[in-house]
Amino acid sequence: MLLATLLVGCGFALRGTSEIPAELNPILIQGGDGTATGRALLDRLQGSQVRVTEDPREARAIVRILDETRDSRVAAVDRNGKVLAYDLSLRVTSDAVDAGGTPLVPTQRMTLIRTLDNPDIEVLGKREETEMIYRDMEEEAADRLLLRLGAALR
């Protein structure tokens, strides 16, 4: 009982819960189906008490994923020119408006970067690891979007 009280007091919340005011339910995610971050955001909201709609007329808040871009660049090479590491980046631009189009969260761009070491392994393994890193970044971007939305609406 004491542990539960301490966790609640420190702000701990289970993953999937979000602090979106009830008066903004239901929420529409625009661009969500076309982007991995949008799909991760939908998963997060469906695991919480926030209701998600696909009908723009029913939505009281609209979170828009305006752009999502993946990129990679060489981060390190050895003296022979062999690539030792890549920087993988994910850029997500988003905003949120109410049903009338009034901004709730201004347009924001976030960039997440991870380093992928390039050891001598199979190409297939590198591709799978790269996709795992991008999925992790997309999930983190969704979490950050929810935090920003919750903070802006308090």
TrEMBL record:
Cellular-component GO terms for this entry: cell outer membrane; transporter complex
UniProt-listed Gene3D superfamilies: Lipoprotein like domain
MF terms in GO: lipopolysaccharide binding
Alphabetical UniProt keywords: Cell outer membrane, Lipoprotein, Membrane, Palmitate, Signal
Pfam family, one: LptE
GO biological process, one term: Gram-negative-bacterium-type cell outer membrane assembly
UniProt superkingdom: Bacteria
InterPro entries cross-referenced by the UniProt entry: LPS_assembly_LptE
Subunit details: Component of the lipopolysaccharide transport and assembly complex. Interacts with LptD.
Functional summary from the UniProt entry: Together with LptD, is involved in the assembly of lipopolysaccharide (LPS) at the surface of the outer membrane. Required for the proper assembly of LptD. Binds LPS and may serve as the LPS recognition site at the outer membrane.
Family affiliation: Belongs to the LptE lipoprotein family.
PANTHER family per record: LPS-ASSEMBLY LIPOPROTEIN LPTE
The protein's name in its UniProt record: LPS-assembly lipoprotein LptE
Organism: Thioflavicoccus mobilis 8321
Encoding gene (name): lptE
